[in-house]
Amino acid sequence: MKEKLVFDSTPLIYFAKAKIIDKIAALSSEKIILESVYKEVVIIGKEKGKEDAFHLDNAVRNKVFTIQKFFGSVISSAKVNKALSETDREVLSFCKLHRTCLITDDEQVRIIAEIEGIEHHGSMYILFSLLKQKIMTSKECRDTLKMIVENGWYCSLDLYQEIIEKLSENK
């Protein structure tokens, strides 16, 4: 069965800024964006004139991502965490309900995912998947990492160096 990946806002934004959505399209997984994430990233982003929002909108139009609406009740652990947005709550609940893998870089979302037994990974999982599936080269992945960091994506210096080393090993 094909892996289903549900994308939270942050990875989408940074991958669009790095202009690698076309590469993500080639991943063998089904790629899902919840309607609330689409509104947050694309609709509001386009209203603010964000270039990445237009890239993502094109990706949706080209069926790289499917938009799905969340129906159901929010999981209790997400309800009580005041640090989560309504969109975060929906994404977590959708992934729990449908047993899908959540792609998020948000620490609070990851904590709840861990508590709820929701499979979850961050942006680097996608980058390494692109490398593993030979969609991108090691150099392209390193360049993408540098670009997303330059655009504001954060990780510790130690983690950054570790990722660069792992990407360099996979030439």
Mean pLDDT: 92
Distance between the termini: 29 Å
Oligomeric nature of the chains: single chain
Spatial order of strands in the largest sheet:
3-2-1-4-5
Instruction: Give the class from helix and strand content and strand pairing.
Output: alpha/beta
Number of E strands? 5
Give the helix proportion (percent range): 55-70%
Q: What are the secondary-structure elements, in order, as H or E?
A: EHHEHHEHHEHEHHH
Structure overview:
- The protein has helices at about 10-15, 20-25, 35-45, 50-60, 75-80, 85-100, 105-115, 125-130, 140-150, 155-170, and strands at about 5, 30-35, 65-70, 100-105, 120.
- The protein has a 5-stranded parallel beta sheet.
- Helix content is about 60%, strand content about 10%.
- Helix 1 (about 10-15) packs across helix 4 (about 50-60), helix 3 crosses helix 4 and helix 8 runs antiparallel to helix 9.
- It is of the alpha/beta class and about 170 residues long.
- About 40% of the residues are buried.
- Strand 4 (about 100-105), helix 7 (about 105-115) and strand 5 (about 120) form a beta-alpha-beta unit.
- It contains 10 helices and 5 strands.
Could you list some keywords that capture this structure?
five-stranded parallel β-sheet, 5 strands, alpha/beta, 171 residues, single chain, 10 helices, 60% helix, globular
What secondary-structure arrangement, pairings included, does this model have?
Blueprint: E1 4-7, H1 9-17, H2 21-25, E2 30-34, H3 35-47, H4 51-61, E3 66-68, H5 76-80, H6 86-98, E4 101-103, H7 107-116, E5 120-121, H8 123-132, H9 138-150, H10 157-169
Parallel strand pairs: 1-2, 1-4, 2-3, 4-5
Helix pairs in contact: 1-4, 3-4, 6-7, 8-9, 9-10
